[in-house]
């Protein structure tokens, strides 16, 4: 797509921090009646022995909460690109029961898919003391994670524990970043539309290319809608192979990162126990501040990745880099 053909994005997917009111004004809170029906649905699923990743809406009826979930899906698919639901009754459940409830709620938004080469369907985001590198994933450390997108259509987080300090979830509108670059540094657009090779961080079969087979665009368009796919670390780590970034490419990446790092573009979320956060990976960039646990406070988020067959923006995804081909087919079938 030629630069002359690019227009600024309009609509609810374009936002900045000033567009939101007081903290947590964006949270939809489950009522006690909704929490009770979630618990009843969990018990029914347990009685039937349905695996958490196979729960459907029909298996998990939520008549009181359905409107909240429909609104959340609308936000994800065609609105701001994110939704936060509070009041998940975590204290009523064991970990396994929480996973059933979480997956049952998520079934109203999408279907659970694998997240890594090992085929994990659920990831516990906790500090495992593993440094973030080209051989590991960032969710195993407590360090700052730069702004990026994840691999599936939607990324979901359930908060089961809060850190003693830090660990804020930060999100930014990819469309707002796109508009700012088009307005102020249009010379970078060709580079961002062409994209970059990504290191696969060992998440591939023996003998496969350790890099993405072709450059992955930072910005592209699907169904006429903006689609963002970005993670700078794997772009940088591609230099461990034969790829070299030019000075101009680094300038483009630096400017992109500087906009994400600008508080004007960020919405900060201190996720609380019982919060569910959902983001559309094609419209939302996300980050996490570093954090510290102590004996009484341990940050614990549970991550699911969701595929939405009805998604308006579904296109190229980093999921294809980090899971086996058989799992991709199984996830998307």
What does this structure look like?
The chain has about 325 residues and is α+β, with helices and mostly antiparallel strands. The protein has one domain: Double-stranded beta-helix. It has nine helices and 15 strands. The strands form four sheets. Strands 1, 2, 3, 4, 6, 12 and 15 form a seven-stranded mixed beta sheet that branches. A hairpin with a 2-residue loop joins strand 9 and strand 10 (about 225-230). It is globular and about 55 Å long. The two termini are about 30 Å apart.
Descriptive terms for the model:
333 residues; alpha+beta; seven-stranded mixed sheet; four-stranded antiparallel sheet; 28% helix; globular; disordered C terminus
Produce the secondary structure layout.
Layout: E1 27-29, H1 32-48, H2 66-78, E2 82-86, H3 95-106, E3 111-113, E4 123-125, E5 145-148, E6 154-161, E7 165-166, E8 169-173, H4 174-184, H5 189-194, E9 219-222, E10 225-228, H6 232-237, H7 247-261, E11 266-269, E12 276-280, E13 284-288, E14 291-292, E15 300-307, H8 319-322, H9 325-332
Parallel strand pairs: 1-2
Antiparallel strand pairs: 2-12, 3-15, 4-15, 5-13, 6-12, 6-15, 7-14, 8-11, 8-13, 9-10
Helix pairs in contact: 1-3
